[in-house]
Each structure stands twice: as structure tokens, then as C-alpha cells.
């Protein structure tokens, strides 16, 4: 299993738009074989950082999702929404291998 960690720098005046963007992606990741663990919006502390976590069975499964998402109408709409609203300024993507109980 591989977990993708996304760290966004968001526009704090467009948190509502970013939340709408996030809600678009959760079912899409799940539809393409991933398991979305949610988006995490600012609460205390920095008001311009948001996070997202989702997992796929393997890096190959994640790459298949990325390739399939390029042509999916709902994914295209989500990307266009982000571009139109400019609800985030940048993001970083990292991958992790989780250590879970009973997972060797």
C-alpha cells in the first residue's frame, strides 16, 4: 500500500471554494480504486495550509488512477474548478508506506 500526502497552500479567503474542490475529489479517488482518508482544512494555527491523504494498493495502481483521471469528465471539471477559483496557490505531493497493526 502507498499513501499519498498532499500539502496545499490555500488562499485563506477561499476556504469555502477549496472545501468544494476537496468534496469533488473524495469520491473520484474512491471510484478509481483508492481509499480517500479526507481533506484537512485549517482550524488552529496557520490559516493557509490544508492537507489530504489517500491510499492505493500500490504505486502502479496510483499511476493507473492518474492516467485514467486525465480523461474522466468529473476529474477534468474538478481541475477546471481549481483553476477558475484559484482556491489554492500551490501543493506538494509525497508518498508514504504506512505501518499498521498486523501489517508486515
Range of strand content:
25-35%
Q: How are the strands ordered across the major sheet?
A: 2-3-1-4
Task: Tell me the major beta sheet.
Answer: 4 strands, antiparallel
SSE order in H/E notation? EHEEHHE
Question: Helical segment tally?
Answer: 3
Q: What integer is the average pLDDT?
A: 93
Provide the helix percentage: 25-40%
Task: Indicate the structural class.
Answer: alpha+beta
Low-confidence stretches: none
Shape: globular
Q: Would you identify the CATH architecture?
A: 2-Layer Sandwich
Count of domains? 1
Task: Give the N-terminus to C-terminus distance in angstroms.
Answer: 11 Å
Q: What's the CATH class, please?
A: Alpha Beta
CATH-defined topology = Alpha-Beta Plaits
The total count of strands amounts to 4
Based on CA atoms alone, the radius of gyration comes out at 14 Å
Brief summary:
This protein is 39% helix and 31% strand.
Which features does this protein show?
NIPSNAP domain-containing protein; 3 helices; NIPSNAP; 104 residues; four-stranded antiparallel β-sheet; Dimeric_a/b-barrel; Alpha-Beta Plaits; single chain; 31% strand; alpha+beta
Describe the protein's architecture and organization.
This protein is 39% helix and 31% strand. It has helices spanning 15-31, 59-69, 73-85, and strands at residues 2-10, 35-40, 49-56, 88-96. It has a 4-stranded antiparallel β-sheet. A hairpin with an 8-residue loop joins strand 2 (35-40) and strand 3. Helix 1 (15-31) packs antiparallel against helix 3. The longest helix is centred in the N-terminal third of the chain and has 17 residues, at 15-31. The model has no long low-confidence stretch (mean pLDDT 93).
Amino acid at each position: 500500500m502507498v499513501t499519498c500526502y498532499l500539502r496545499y497552500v490555500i488562499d485563506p479567503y477561499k476556504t469555502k471554494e477549496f472545501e468544494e474542490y476537496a468534496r469533488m475529489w473524495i469520491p473520484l479517488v474512491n471510484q478509481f480504486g483508492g481509499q480517500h482518508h479526507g481533506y484537512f482544512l485549517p482550524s488552529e494555527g496557520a490559516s493557509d495550509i490544508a492537507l489530504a491523504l489517500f491510499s492505493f494498493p500500490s504505486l502502479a495502481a496510483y499511476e493507473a488512477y492518474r492516467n485514467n483521471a486525465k480523461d474522466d469528465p468529473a476529474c477534468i471539471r474538478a481541475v477546471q474548478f481549481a483553476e477558475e477559483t484559484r482556491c489554492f496557490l500551490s501543493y506538494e505531493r509525497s508518498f508514504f508506506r504506512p505501518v499498521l497493526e498486523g501489517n508486515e
